[in-house]
Design a protein that fits this description.
Blueprint: H1 7-16, H2 22-36, H3 42-64, H4 70-78, H5 85-98, H6 107-127, H7 139-151, H8 163-183, H9 189-217
């Protein structure tokens, strides 16, 4: 009704995803590219992944600093900024394929170091008034070392969650969030908390409806 969705956007969504579901397309296209790198050694994979992430980071910086021409901006935004299959999904999936092979010692020290780097990087961006939407360089090694640390620890927490509910809630929550942002401006901290509560309630109600439909149609 408000012309926010066109044929062009529909075609682009097939390749780059829609809203919060962009990662599904990034995953599929990234895995296709992974197939062609399956025989690469660990060093080459790491170099390729890091190089593509840096290219994506540079493009993001050029866009934020408004160093692109008007045509270049159109191309950059059309391909989904840095959240496209080549500069986002693929290199991170590539790192994922080698993460168990990476030899990591002194994990706590590395986590502390890159956590400090992440804090410093954030301060620098704030001082330079640069609002990065996607890629923080220090977050990449930080997330790798945190993940390596977690998988080496024995779980002390025993609990289970309904995977269908988690999937359903994630698929749905985008829409209550979208309408809450539109309907209720968040002017105060209290209003923000109220909106979060409303989003949660509406998401659970919608999931319950979806779950009833799923019992008939098996869409999940």
């Amino acid at each position: 009704k408000n012309n926010s969705f066109s044929t062009q956007k529909l075609i682009l969504s097939i390749f780059y995803g829609f809203g919060h579901l962009w990662y599904l397309n990034a995953l599929i296209l990234g895995l296709i590219l992974i197939y062609f790198t399956r025989k690469y050694n660990i060093t080459l994979k790491l170099i390729l992944a890091i190089s593509l992430i840096i290219i994506g980071y540079i493009l993001q910086q050029l866009y934020i600093l408004k160093l692109f021409t008007e045509n270049q901006v159109s191309i950059y935004t059309m391909i989904g900024t840095s959240k496209n299959f080549l500069f986002y999904g693929f290199p991170y999936i590539l790192i994922g394929t080698i993460i168990e092979q990476l030899k990591c010692s002194n994990l706590k020290l590395k986590i502390l170091f890159f956590l400090s780097c992440n804090f410093l990087e954030t301060i620098i961006y704030q001082k330079l008034n640069i609002n990065l939407p996607n890629i923080y360089i220090s977050t990449i090694p930080l997330s790798i070392f945190i993940f390596k640390y977690i998988i080496t620890q024995e779980s002390k927490i025993k609990f289970s969650l309904n995977p269908k509910m988690l999937l359903g809630a994630y698929l749905i929550h985008f829409y209550p969030v979208y309408y809450m942002v539109t309907l209720i401006p968040a002017n105060t901290f209290f209003v923000t908390l109220l909106k979060m509560f409303l989003v949660l309630i509406i998401t659970l109600i919608l999931f319950s409806i979806l779950n009833i439909i799923d019992k008939k149609l098996k869409i999940l």
